[in-house]
Amino acid sequence: MAAAAGAGRALAAVAVVLVAAASLLRRSEAIGVNWGTQLSHPLPASTVVRLLQDNGFDKVKLFDAEDSILSALKGSGIQVMVGIPNDMLADLAAGGKAADDWVAKNVSGHVRDGVDIRYVAVGNEPFLETFNGTYLNTTFPAMQSIHAALSKAGLADKVKVTVPLNADVYQSPTAKPSDGDFRGDIHGLMLTIVQFLSSTGAPFVANVYPFISLYSDPNFPLDYAFFQGSSAPVVDGGVTYTNTFDANHDTLVAALRRNGFGNVSVVVGEVGWPTDGDASANPDYARRFNQGFVSHIAGGQGTPLRPGVPVDAYLFSLIDEDRKSIQPGNFERHWGIFNYDGTPKYPLSLAGGGGGNGGGGSSATLKAARGVRYLEKRWCVLKPGADLGDQKVGDSVSYACGLADCTALGYKTSCGGVDAKGNVSYAFNSYYQTMDQDDRACDFRGLATATSVDPSAGTCRFIVEIDVGAAAPAGGGSARGGVAGRVASSVLAALLLMSMLL
Ligand SMILES: *[C@@H]1O[C@H](CO)[C@@H](O)[C@H](O)[C@H]1NC(C)=O
Ligand SMILES: *[C@@H]1O[C@H](CO)[C@@H](O)[C@H](O)[C@H]1NC(C)=O
Ligand SMILES: *[C@@H]1O[C@H](CO)[C@@H](O)[C@H](O)[C@H]1NC(C)=O
Ligand SMILES: *[C@@H]1O[C@H](CO)[C@@H](O)[C@H](O)[C@H]1NC(C)=O
Ligand SMILES: *[C@@H]1O[C@H](CO)[C@@H](O)[C@H](O)[C@H]1NC(C)=O
């Protein structure tokens, strides 16, 4: 009996390995993800790297080149795009030693240590119209300086220089993708950059946001954002576009072709959907979009203008960031496929199976971050007897929300349904958690009190922050990373063996 059960378990384990191997071998290219770090309480880098590995991400895009993050990626097998913030572009463009220093400090050493850096993203969406042209003169010279520095360091073949651009650098006057071209006011600059990308073999990196189309135009047809057909398709010659992603991607392909650069590859630097902070930002739409997108590209069939060329993309984003600017909108802090603590927000099959009907078993659900340590189960709320008419209440809420994150409050958001007192409590708790549950952060001139009863209700979640002070010591973290690495490499060896047998 016991022996039979043991054999059964062994067989089951073999079956699991076979299924996992088959899905890995079928997948042409795994998807990437953006790892932003604008959090009040970031998870330890080693925890995030394990989260990436557990969920099968094989490439990650960063917004800078933080030492602790790159060190954690060492030997992970994950390909890395490092970034240079816009405020450094002027220095790098000025020539001199700045680019050499940047490459030496932020690339060369890490590559030597075994970090698989593939790209340097010089600037981030520098030509957004909201920047008023601030980076128009410095972006390309900065790219050239970094490329020259990489060449001097002997890394230019391995590490390519590019710039992630917002999708409004190209457009189509007729809305038909085949009429795509670069924006008139920066046309010459775009050709200079594309020429550089073409001659260095670097990709054009474009960020594509159907959510923003919907957010900025209430008449945007909702079903055109998703991937299940549309009541308002775009007919372009012999091609019918039923989703805005393909149309957007091909508008860029047409712009490249029109200008003689049809061979430049395209990488989707950011694509995703937020879950909170706006009426169109919720877990249901986010799951529909992200699962639709992942399944759409999983077969490697490409887009109408690039058939058979797999779409190379980085989801935006990995984890919610409570410190992001909300100037674009309150949704800005809710792009993660994971919550602040590395718990998944909704089921998502990164293998593209989707829908929950077959397609990838355990991979249909994201795996949570492991070993996360939280603060105590304590929350801060408005005292039951408090008078909402009291001027101090409004002032306290403004103060709390100015320093902490209250973007889950508002019309049709996750906490949009709570009553006025619940609103105040939400703000108090958000501040209290941000301040690591310091007693002094749950006073608000006598209006607040701490409780061990979770005030969360329905979709409105009152969080308990993670304990950043109790992060696993570096030694412990990397020891576990080492085990994970060894397990991963033995699995890899098994897979290699299998692929030879197949
Ligand atoms: C990269 O290198 C530059 C120049 O050495 C340095 O100022 C910068 O802080 C480094 N780190 C990041 C994250 O860019
Ligand atoms: C761009 O110009 C507008 C209007 O003049 C101004 O409000 C805004 O702050 C400027 N933005 C930047 C990044 O300079
Ligand atoms: C960029 O250069 C042009 C031409 O040299 C100049 O007129 C413009 O003011 C510059 N823009 C910025 C933001 O420096
Ligand atoms: C694209 O074509 C140009 C001109 O034929 C060539 O110089 C360049 O190397 C090609 N680039 C890529 C990435 O194939
Ligand atoms: C709760 O707060 C939000 C955001 O400040 C506000 O829009 C909403 O009207 C408030 N709800 C109630 C019931 O007071």
UniProtKB/TrEMBL annotation:
It catalyses: Hydrolysis of (1->3)-beta-D-glucosidic linkages in (1->3)-beta-D-glucans. The keyword Membrane applies. It is an enzyme of class 3 (hydrolase). Keywords: Cell membrane, Disulfide bond, Glycoprotein, Glycosidase, GPI-anchor, Hydrolase, Lipoprotein, Membrane, Plant defense, Signal. It comes from the Eukaryota. Residues 378-462 form the X8 domain. Its EC number is 3.2.1.39. One of its GO terms (molecular function) is glucan endo-1,3-beta-D-glucosidase activity. Residues 1-30 form the signal peptide. Belongs to the glycosyl hydrolase 17 family. This is glucan endo-1,3-beta-D-glucosidase.
